[in-house]
Structures are given as structure tokens and as C-alpha cells.
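Input record (one chain):
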Amino acid sequence: MATSLDIYVEHFGLTERPFSLVPDPAFLFWSEHHRRAFAMLEYGIVTRAPVTLITGEVGAGKTTILFKLLATLGDDVRVGLITNSHGDRGELLRWVLMALDQPAPVEASYVDLFSRFQAHLIAEYAQGRRVILIFDEAQNLSRESLEEIRMFTNINANKDELVQLVLVGQPELRDLIRRPDMIQLAQRVAASFHLPAMDGPTVQGYIRHRLEVAGAQEPIFSEGAIDLVHEASKGVPRLVNQLCDLAMVYAFTKDQRHVSRATVEDVLNDGVFFAGGQTVTIPPRARAVGETTTSRGEA
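The corresponding structure, as predicted from the sequence alone:
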């Protein structure tokens, strides 16, 4: 049985849904800033930087770039991806060991866990492999956990690093690492980049790129619709995806083959676009006096 989303894809002559919220490297749009972020990630890996730092607003595309990088790594690299970084330093070590497919017994002490971790790094090094630990949403790490991470970089073999760290998080992560009491960790950050929100022309290129990847044979969004999407989403890719997806659903229900500015206005007026908890106001030229759309919630 066909779902409404299946019908919406068919309605616009597409092969798949172009604005899914799930990160998909196949849809990665290489804006200038995304190219720089990827280059800095790659630079950090190739030069064996002790710590590489990538930050950006929620939904800026950090995770998509990260997955793109992971797809390029060879068999000489072992990657541990840690997305749950809460707890004390012992719990952090457990998450790290599990990410590397290593046992982390509940009854094991911190010393035992660290010994297991160090032994694993040495064993991988002896086999000609290096280990990369990636901490996603690293802004949630406590000061104690960040200090523990710094200690990981002290496990060296001659001039070679046995482990490299990649910290990925929201803008406050940069502020956290720049604190005076974190200077030893900051000094180990050899590569870093901050992903800003997209400007108007970049949003236009982003929307058209995703539509083309999804099989669009002609422009679907009008210039006015794209302008309003940019204003309402503030250029955050995840919010652009959310608003564009809703606008296409609305156009489908109206049996329209194109998305106009008026259709995007309808989405905003109905309050179905949550905008990551931000307040959305339709620009004066596109609404009657006193008509305001306010959306609250989490994206």
C-alpha cells in the first residue's frame, strides 16, 4: 500500500524524498564552508593530529560530513564512535572500550579499564593500525571527561600517536575548550573548523542540489519560496530540510507541481514548522499587518 510520502515523491517526478532529516552522504552539498570543514577533518586525520575539533550549530551538517569521512578511511584505521559521553571518567572509558568492540566488565576498576584501553592501542599499533576516537555531541562532556580525553593523547609510541581524537559538537564546545583551565587540551587541538549557517545563495544552491540528486528534472521551488525558506530557517541545513519537506507536502495536497512562496507562508502560518525552538516571523512584505507565525519546540 502506497503511503502519502510515496505519492508525494511520485507527484513531483522524483526517485526519493529529497529533504529527509536523516544524514545521508549521498545528498551532501559541498558548500564552501562544508568543503573547508571536510578538508580540515581530513587534514587532522592525515597529519595524525592529536585532537581535531569541528563545531557548528545544531543541524549544520557536522554528522553528514563525519560519515562522509568515515567512508573514505582504509583498513589501517580503527574507529570508535562515541555518542553517549555522560558520566565520570570510568564510565567514559567504558563507552570508549565498547565503541572499539572491547570488553568493559561492570566490576572492572578504572585502573583495569585504562589498562585494557592502553593494551588495545598498543596491539593495534603493533599490527600497523591506528585508532581514531570520535566524540559526537562533545559539548556534553564534563570537564573531568575532557581532562580524561586529554590524557588519552599522552599514550604515545616514540614519535607516533597511538590514538587520535576528533571532537564534534555545538559552538559552546569551542568556548569550553578555550577556558583557562583547559589550556592543556587546547594546545593539543592541531586542526579545527566552525561550520556557520548558510547564506541566501548557498541555501538556493543547497535546495536545488538536493532536488537534482532526488531526480528532479526542473526547478520545483520558486525564487520567492527559497528566499522565505532561508529567512525562516536562518540557513541551518536541518531546518531548511524540515521546512522544504513540509512545503512539498503542502504543494502535493494542493495538487501543485511547484512550491511557491505562498505555500511556504501557509506552512509557517499553520505553525507546523517548529524551527528548532526559534520564533519565526513572516517578513512584512509577505503578510498582512499584524500577521505573525510563532513556532516553538525542538527540531
